[in-house]
Each structure stands twice: as structure tokens, then as C-alpha cells.
């Protein structure tokens, strides 16, 4: 079926992103994978190209286009080029952090942070997960105690995307520990604040070019002016913004599935066994037919979700359905594609090897598949 989601402006934007990937990403990506970090210069280049802060109003240096289809194009092109680490890092910046700054930031905060956000001078992160608190955000132990015109922040965060490069970090902390979920606030910690330190750059099974780190906060004095939104309303803000984050992950999942499928179709045409194309064997044809159908069906549902988000009607339940189905599809598809590549699929000279490794985390971060099913099941009244 013809995909009807995009208009001419989105297609022109896609052409620009593809040229950016060819010019600045393809030749460097293997090095970034080996080093576990993309060059900081790439963020500046992305800012200059208009790929950061597309939804940010022009008065703050952004694109002035609060249309998630632009975000979708950017993430899709990174994912389809095999650069899932960039999809994660830039996606977190544009799709996850931006809404917090735009919706909760004061005028002073917006003028202070958004121009750098859009230019690539300020890389952002959000610090939710802790060594003892992942899916259960109410269990965070990081605390922020008000002291005059500051909060004194103490705690540890882990698995933080953009953790090494980040210049501003939205930190989830307890400002009223005895109040449970009603005692959580969001504080913006800036690079260079005394007591704010980077821990380990974490070694991972996949997503090697994505800098993922531990963050440590020891008596960090965070100005009260860096409180994002109202005190003790952080949990509600997190729940409100999670659907867009999960939709963004679903975009990566479907784009990666499509890329893996395309690579595999070509491989099945080129590779011969027993005197014929391996794609001509019934098992290969059936596997390819199954993947083609499932990916097309997922794309239609995803595109509907994108339009729902733009209209402000995407529900947490629908976002959960999208997130769990598409990421499980991604995991299943990359594994099947690797199998069809045979031994070559396990070699890093073929992109399916990296895609297979990178796919695995997507059923975990942003809410595990099991949590997504719990959200959906509760909505059914159980």
C-alpha cells in the first residue's frame, strides 16, 4: 500500500537528512561504534542543518514546526542507514526532552536553554532510571531538599542516554519522599555544577555508538530557578510525556525492521545455494512473506499513531500497544533476517549483524514489553 503520511515538505526534509547521513555519518560510524561515542561535532552539524528542535518556536532558534512527522523522518533515516545509536541519541533530544522544556519551561528557562538546544551547543538527557528503580519510577531514591533559593540534590542514575555528552539533564528526584508519586519533581542540572559527575560510560551488548552513562549527584546545589514545572508534580509530567517517547521508539522499530528486510531480500537474490537463489526456497519465501506482511501492517498502525499524536489524541494505551508490538516485531525480524543471511549474518561486515544487536534493547527501554501489556490489560478493567 502507498504510504500517505507525508507531504512534499516532509519529503524534501527527508532528502536533506539522507544527504546529511551520506556526508557526515556513513564514513565515520564504524569509528564511533569502536569508540563508544559519536563526535560532538555531529551535534553542531545537525543543529546547523536544522535537525535539532524542529518543534521549537523560531524565536528560540528552532524550526517552528510542531509536526511529529519531521521527527519521524529524521529518526527513520538514521535507523534505515543502520545508525540506530543516532536514532536513540537525537530522538531522545528532539522527541523526549523537547516537550518537557517547551511545555513546562518558564520564559526565562526557554531563552536560556532552547537556543543551544537547537544549535547543538547543548546536548540534553533525562535521568529517570536508578540502580534500584527502572520501570517503577515511584521507587526512585534520588532526593532534592530545598535549602533557601536552591535544592540540594543527592543520588545516582544509570543507563542514561546521552549521559557523557549531555550539558543539561532533567533529573527525576524526590522533593517530598514520604508522599510517594506525589512527591517527585523535575530539576534541570547543568554541566559544571559542583558535585555533578559522570560515572562509567557503560559497555553494552549493542548501540555501541550511543553514549550511555552513570550520573552521580553529590550535594549538588541546583538553583530553584531550574525547577521544571511545579514542585511535586513531576510524576504526572512524566506520565503525560511517555506516549510520545514510546511512539518515537516505535518509529525506530518499524524503520529498522524495514531496513533489515530490504537488506535481506537483496541478499536472498544475490546468494545462491544448490544452484539457485536462496530466496527461491519455500522456507525463505515464506519467511520473507511473513515479514513483508507484518511490517506493512505495523507501518499503517504506526502512521495512524503519528497523526493521533499530532492531533493531541494519542492515548497512553495506544502508545503502549504501538511500543510493544513494533519492538517485538523488530526483535523478531532482525533475528529472522540474520538467520537468512546464514554465517555471514553474524559478521559485522553485513549491516544485519549490528541491527540484530541494536534491536534487543528496544523491548526494554521506554518501558518493557511486560509493562506495556500491563498498561493495556489494566485499561481492559483487570
Q: What labels describe this entry?
A:
four-stranded antiparallel β-sheet, 382 residues, four-stranded mixed β-sheet, alpha+beta, 51% helix, 11 helices
Order of strands, widest sheet: 1-4-5-8
Overall residue-averaged pLDDT value: 96
| Through-space gap between termini | 37 Å
Topology pattern, helix = H, strand = E: HHHHHHEEEEEEEEHEEHHHH
Q: Report the structural category.
A: alpha+beta
- Strand percent estimate: 15-25%
Envelope shape: globular
Number of helices: 11
How much helical structure, as a percent, in the residues? 40-55%
Spans of 5+ residues with little confidence (pLDDT < 50)? none
Q: Based on DSSP secondary structure assignment, what is the total number of beta strands?
A: 10
Characterize the biggest β-sheet.
4 strands, mixed
Which value, in Å, is the CA radius of gyration? 21 Å
How would you describe this structure to a colleague?
This protein is an alpha+beta fold. It is 51% helix and 15% strand. The protein has eleven helices and ten strands. It has helices at residues 8-24, 29-35, 40-48, 68-80, 84-104, 107-119, 234-270, 282-311, 316-341, 351-359, 369-379; strands at 124-127, 143-147, 150-161, 168-174, 184-190, 196-201, 212-223, 227-228, 272-273, 276-277. Strands 1-4-5-8 form a four-stranded mixed beta sheet, with helices on one face. A hairpin with a 2-residue loop joins β9 (272-273) and β10 (276-277). The chain is globular, with a radius of gyration of 21 Å. The mean pLDDT is 96.
Amino acid at each position: 500500500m502507498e504510504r500517505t503520511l507525508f507531504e512534499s515538505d516532509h519529503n524534501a526534509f527527508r532528502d536533506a537528512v539522507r544527504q546529511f547521513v551520506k556526508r557526515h555519518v556513513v564514513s565515520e560510524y564504524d569509528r564511533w561504534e569502536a569508540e563508544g561515542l559519536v563526535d560532538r561535532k555531529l551535534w553542531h552539524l545537525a543543529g546547523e542543518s536544522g535537525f535539532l528542535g524542529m518543534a521549537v518556536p523560531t524565536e528560540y532558534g528552532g524550526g517552528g514546526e510542531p509536526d511529529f512527522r519531521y521527527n519521524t523522518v529524521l529518526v527513520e533515516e538514521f535507523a534505515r542507514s543502520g545508525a540506530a545509536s543516532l536514532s536513540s541519541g537525537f530522538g531522545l533530544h528532539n522527541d523526549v526532552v523537547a516537550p518537557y522544556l517547551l511545555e513546562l519551561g518558564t520564559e526565562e528557562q526557554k531563552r536560556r536553554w532552547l537556543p543551544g538546544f537547537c544549535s547543538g551547543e547543548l546536548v540534553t538527557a533525562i535521568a529517570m532510571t536508578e540502580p534500584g528503580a527502572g520501570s517503577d519510577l515511584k521507587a526512585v531514591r534520588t532526593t532534592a531538599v530545598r535549602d533557601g533559593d536552591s535544592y540540594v540534590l543527592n543520588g545516582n542514575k544509570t543507563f542514561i542516554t546521552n549521559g557523557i555528552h549531555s550539558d543539561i539533564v532533567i533529573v527525576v528526584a524526590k522533593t517530598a519522599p514520604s508522599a510517594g508519586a506525589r512527591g517527585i519533581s523535575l530539576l534541570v542540572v547543568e554541566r559544571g555544577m559542583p558535585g555533578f559527575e559522570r560515572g562509567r560510560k557503560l559497555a553494552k551488548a549493542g548501540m555501541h555508538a550511543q553514549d550511555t552513562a552513570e550520573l552521580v549527584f553529590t550535594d549538588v546545589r541546583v538553583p530553584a530557578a531550574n525547577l521544571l514545572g511545579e514542585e511535586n508534580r513531576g510524576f504526572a509530567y512524566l506520565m503525560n510525556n511517555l506516549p510520545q517517547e514510546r511512539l518515537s521508539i516505535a518509529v525506530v522499530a518499524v524503520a529498522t525492521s524495514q531496513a533489515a528486510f530490504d537488506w535481506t531480500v537483496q541478499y536472498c537474490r544475490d546468494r545462491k545455494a544448490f544452484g539457485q537463489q536462496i530466496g527461491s526456497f519455500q522456507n525463505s519465501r515464506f519467511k520473507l512473506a511473513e515479514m513483508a506482511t507484518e511490517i506493512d501492517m505495523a507501518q499503517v498502525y504506526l502512521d495512524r499513531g503519528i497523526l493521533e499524536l499530532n492531533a493531541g489524541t494519542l492515548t497512553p494505551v495506544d502508545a503502549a500497544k504501538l511500543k510493544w508490538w513494533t519492538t517485538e516485531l523488530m526483535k523478531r525480524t532482525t533475528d529472522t533476517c540474520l538467520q537468512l543471511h546464514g554465517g555471514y549474518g553474524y559478521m559485522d561486515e553485513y549491516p544485519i549483524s549490528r541491527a540484530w544487536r541494536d534491536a534487543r534493547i528496544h523491548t526494554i527501554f521506554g518501558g518493557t514489553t511486560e509493562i506495556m501489556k500491563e498498561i493495556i490489560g489494566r485499561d481492559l478493567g483487570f
